[in-house]
Design goal:
The chain has 118 residues and is of the alpha/beta class. It has one domain (18-111): Rhodanese-like domain (Oxidized Rhodanese, domain 1, 3-Layer(aba) Sandwich), CATH 3.40.250.10. The protein is built from six helices and five strands; from the N terminus they run H-E-H-E-H-E-H-E-H-E-H. The chain has helices at residues 8-11, 20-29, 40-45, 59-64, 80-91, 103-111, and strands at residues 16-18, 33-36, 53-54, 72-75, 97-100. Strands 1-5-4-2-3 form a five-stranded parallel sheet. The longest helix is centred in the last third of the chain and has 12 residues, at 80-91.
């Protein structure tokens, strides 16, 4: 039996890509909840200057309890872990799920150059 490998593109059928510029605008407008899936150590190095949630300290449970049509956008360092989180939430019935393409790295390059790159 051949081995199968799920790629980011395979996962992306369950969620939408969102540019960092659009994510920033939508968070500021209050039309999407941004979720930074990076661990606290990485967020201490570089963080966005807009409101965001995380998965720690009950965050996962709080997010899963939201209405399934809540717009969610997931952010990580480059977009891989956030794609996995977006897929997870889409598979748990969320219908308005986005992966922030390029992650905090792209955020630093496009939205806010004061965000450190690492």
């Amino acid at each position: 039996m051949p081995c199968t490998f799920t790629t980011y593109r395979d996962l992306a059928m369950d969620f939408n890509d969102l540019s960092v510029a659009d994510a920033d605008a939508r968070v500021r407008a209050g039309t999407v909840t941004l979720v930074d899936v990076r661990p606290p150590e990485e967020r201490a190095i570089a963080a966005v200057a807009v409101a965001f949630d995380s998965l720690e300290d009950g965050g996962l449970e709080r997010l899963l309890a939201l209405p399934k049509d809540t717009p969610l956008a997931f952010l990580c360092h480059h977009g891989g872990r956030s794609a996995q989180a977006a897929y997870y939430f889409a598979r748990h019935g969320f219908t308005n799920v986005h992966n922030v393409v390029g992650g905090i790295e792209a955020w630093s390059l496009v939205v806010d150059p004061t965000v450190p790159r690492y």
